[in-house]
Amino acid sequence: MNRHAMEKLHAWMEERGFPHFTVLRPENFAWLTGGGDNTVVAGEGVAWLEVVEGKVKLHTSRIEEGRLVEEEVTGIDEVVAYPWYAVPEPGRPSDLEHDLTPLRLVLSPEEQERFRALGRDAARCVGEAVRAARPQWTERELAGAIAEEALSWGIQPVVLLVAGEERIFKWRHPLPKDRSLGRLFMAVICGRREGLIANLTRLRSFGHPEA
Fold this sequence. Notes:
Layout: H1 3-16, E1 20-23, H2 26-33, E2 47-52, E3 55-61, H3 62-72, E4 78-82, H4 101-104, H5 109-132, H6 139-152, E5 156-163, E6 184-193, E7 196-205
Parallel strand pairs: 3-4
Antiparallel strand pairs: 1-2, 2-3, 5-6, 6-7
């Protein structure tokens, strides 16, 4: 568990008189656990944390219990597992109606180091794909190369945009299409790892007059 995050959450709960609180959102789950992932389908949690009386309980299905305990969370005080067909509604109050974003904005020293490492690795993997690209590649081919590099570094592409010469000056958020990169292209990634997201843009020119 993220001790720094737990201290901030406990203080926040005391200010509001909450004896217990439920954490469901993936971004908050990752923050509280120090990088744990409670999703299978992107953006949808399959587990939640119940913070009560200074302890943390993990609630999930029996299908996910072993994997989460072994690979995603440490320092949990109790695990409550349900049959997959009888998982109850999470308790309230929760982060579905209370925004915890302000608590996450100031990163701890450990989070800062993880963020710096993520930025370096994201730049490295996108750079490898961009340097390998050729004008005859399609935007989708470049997107696939970036995704392959990112996943090999444990980075999940949350946003992946590519625009070749034909589209780079036309759209702000160009989803990759089956168009050639041409003499100028742009690649954008928002990559997530351990609950943190690094955003970066790279452009490459093959002699384009406006580059």
